[in-house]
């Protein structure tokens, strides 16, 4: 399985991007992935400029494992952050790894215009918008009675 990426997605990271990618790379070293050995680090920057990291956390049941991207979002929410502008995701794979579908849905909930930076340990960086990775997202839950708050 591979991600199809055109040259337009190759990205020359800014200093801010590098900072975020570094945070994700450092977090990756703390990933708990004894079953897959596939360590993932994610770091996102919220609208106040704070950085929140997440790692994948696996479980012997396998099905209860949670991805780094969602753990980064949950850490941001727990600490009062909102409005992430960008997220960096780092793996050791030769091709920078894209977030899974479940994570795309959780990311778009908080950031319909999120920038996604995919990086590996070789310094390759790809850049996508959440719109490119999740077309026509589900964003409009309506509870019976018409309220969604
Ligand atoms: Zn995921």
List the ions, cofactors and other small molecules found in this model. Answer: zinc ion
Biggest sheet statistics: 5 strands, mixed
Straight-line N-to-C gap: 39 Å
Helix and strand sequence:
HEEHEHEEH
**The named CATH superfamily:** Cytidine Deaminase, domain 2
Low-confidence stretches: none
Number of separate strands: 5
Strand order in the sheet with the most strands: 2-1-3-4-5
Shape: globular
Content-based structural category: alpha+beta
Strand fraction? 15-25%
Number of domains: 1
CATH topology: the name is Cytidine Deaminase, domain 2
Would you mind describing this structure in some detail?
The structure is a single chain. By secondary structure, this protein is of the alpha+beta class. It has one domain: Cytidine Deaminase, domain 2. The chain has helices at 15-28, 68-78, 101-110, 130-133, and strands at residues 41-45, 51-55, 86-91, 115-120, 125-129. Strands 2-1-3-4-5 form a five-stranded mixed β-sheet. Strand 1 (41-45) and strand 2 (51-55) form a beta hairpin. The protein is globular and about 50 Å long. The protein starts with 14 loop residues before the first helix and ends in a 16-residue tail after the last helix. Zinc ion binds at residues 67, 69, 99-100, 102-103.
Task: Please outline what is shown here.
The protein is built from four helices and five strands.
């Amino acid at each position: 399985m591979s991600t199809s990426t055109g040259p337009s997605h190759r990205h020359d990271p800014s200093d801010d991007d590098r900072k975020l990618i570094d945070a994700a790379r450092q977090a990756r070293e703390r990933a708990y992935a004894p079953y897959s050995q596939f360590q993932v680090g994610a770091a996102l920057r919220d609208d106040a400029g704070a950085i929140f990291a997440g790692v994948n956390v696996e479980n012997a049941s396998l099905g209860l494992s949670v991805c780094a991207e969602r753990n980064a979002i949950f850490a941001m929410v727990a600490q009062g952050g909102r409005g992430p502008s960008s997220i960096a995701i780092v793996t050791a794979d030769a091709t920078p790894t894209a977030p899974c579908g479940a994570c795309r849905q959780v990311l778009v909930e908080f950031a319909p215009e999120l920038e996604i930076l995919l990086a590996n340990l070789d310094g390759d960086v790809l850049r996508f918008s959440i719109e490119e990775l999740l077309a026509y997202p589900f964003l409009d839950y309506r509870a019976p009675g018409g309220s969604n708050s």
